[in-house]
Amino acid sequence: MLYALLYPLHTTYSAFNVFRYITFRTLLAAIMALSVSFLFGPWLIARLTALQVGQQIRPDGPASHQSKAGTPTMGGALILFSLTLATLLLADLANPYVWLALGVTLSFGLIGFADDYRKLRRRNSRGLTGRQKLVLQFAIATIAAFLLLYLSGFDSTVPVPFFKDVHPNLGWFYVPFAALVMVGASNAVNLTDGLDGLAIGPVMITSVTYAIFTYVSGHVKIAEYLQVSYVAGAGELAVFCGALAAAGLGFLWFNAYPAQMFMGDVGSLSLGAALGVVALISKQEIVLVLAGGVFVIEATSVIFQVVSYKLRRKRIFRMAPLHHHFELLGWPEPQIIVRFWIVSLICALGALSTLKLR
Questions:
Q1: What is the pLDDT of residues 45-59, one digit of tens each?
Q2: DSSP characters over 60-82
Q3: 25 FRET partner, CA 20 to 30 A, in 32, 49, 161, 327?
Q4: pLDDT (tens digit per residue) in 84-99
Q5: Predicted TM-score (pTM) of this structure
Q6: What secondary structure letter does DSSP report for 54?
Q7: Which of 204, 178, 193 is nearest to 283 (CA)?
């Protein structure tokens, strides 16, 4: 919006030429998203408290979590509002990838909202059933995958990290693959969101990683030099990723231990989907497994725990997801959070190394 209004003025006032650069608009979007989060955060906490929108704690969770019952939840709405506003104001809205990323993010956010709302109405931790959430998620993700592949002229190749000449063409199989990426990323972030600030830290780190990936993928010369897939227009999503990282940082101000509010499913489901769709558009789908390593580890720990218990009637971890296992081992909550952030940062550096190591 601001981009469309201000950039054309560069012919009269040369200073406005700066809006031409994605890097400048990414920085500006980040500042705007952070400012909006700081501005509206206290108001949202007060409003959620007044409406008694409090967190419902699982009765089978760690005993230490019972004291968190009643903490305002659905704070992910703050992230979505800040992200959407900054993106609409500073991204090029003629770019279809921007609308696709926003559409997927907000649609998954609506699923999360429905889940959180049902929990509040029932006054327990049971929202939508797992089947209901998966059906809705796959429906939205499949539509988005069709739009990506068939309406934008997007190709169906999938580059393999570290191998510059390996990029299999999935054809129409790309649609279920893309849907799986979005749904998988969404639920992986959702499973990670169990401690104060635990999920939002890796989300920010992964967002910054993909801000770099999208910029590289959308820049023909840099993409050619690094021998990565060039996707015309993908660079505009750097603005989206910058806004996402900064909106997360603003939310972290209120979500840091001890949390004043939680993001809820409205935040975790939408943020994971956002990372998934950005990974697809930048042609860095497989790298998301490495960049979002913390999310993968958390989701995998749940899968292993369930499979092990069903087959052997034995648990691998004291409790899943993995962060609960460390809680029950006696690790202080802040220690678990910071160490998971460190692991996320290492994973992000490993992901970025794929740009050169191939």
A1: 999 988 877 666 665
A2: TS-GGGGGGTT-B--THHHHHHH
A3: 161
A4: 999 999 999 999 999 9
A5: 0.94
A6: B
A7: 178
